[in-house]
């Protein structure tokens, strides 16, 4: 049982790390001379512009920002609740709250990545961008990490539900 708990702790911490990286790093959409994420856009690796109200579809960007931050916070809260429940509750009652919080984190990251998938073309228009250059980009590793974090948080939420019945 100790090995299983150690695996779950490592899995949960790696989920949180993936969420932090996906939320912070500038690699959701990358191309030869640019990169963009949900916070700013960079041309030629140095000319970075923060996203604000002047960018198209800024409301969608704000929704992505909010849900990614919320998913990261929920994942961290779920870990602390897991540690508290591990020592405070008796067998059979454990980890239900942790599972619910982790599944909410999963839902938030899925919403953020889905919005970005649907709207990413609209984020790359404006006078400072050559649309042909930007449209020839591809999804970056932070975007992929967001989807990997989605699957990790989903799996850990399900593991907590299964683990609640274990001795």
Automatic annotation (TrEMBL):
Keyword Membrane tagged? yes
Molecular functions per Gene Ontology: integrin binding; protein kinase binding
Q: List, alphabetically, the PROSITE patterns matched.
A: PMP22_1, PMP22_2
Which residue spans traverse the membrane? 63-83, 95-116, 141-163
Tell me, in one coarse class, where this protein mainly resides: membrane
What UniProt keywords are attached to this protein's entry? Cell membrane, Cytoplasm, Golgi apparatus, Membrane, Nucleus, Signal, Transmembrane, Transmembrane helix
Q: Where is the signal peptide?
A: 1-16
Q: Output the InterPro entries linked to this UniProt entry.
A: EMP-2, PMP-22/EMP/MP20-like, PMP22/EMP/MP20/Claudin, PMP22_EMP_MP20
Provide the GO biological process annotations: actin filament organization; actin-mediated cell contraction; apoptotic process; bleb assembly; blood vessel endothelial cell migration; cell-matrix adhesion; early endosome to late endosome transport; heart formation
Q: How does it sit in the membrane?
A: Multi-pass membrane protein
PANTHER family to which the protein is assigned, alphabetical: EPITHELIAL MEMBRANE PROTEIN 2, EPITHELIAL MEMBRANE PROTEIN-RELATED
Task: Describe its assembly.
Answer: Interacts with PTK2; regulates PTK2 activation and localization. Interacts with ITGB3; regulates the levels of the heterodimer ITGA5-ITGB3 integrin surface expression. Interacts with P2RX7 (via C-terminus). Interacts with ITGB1; the interaction may be direct or indirect and ITGB1 has a heterodimer form.
Q: What is this protein called?
A: Epithelial membrane protein 2
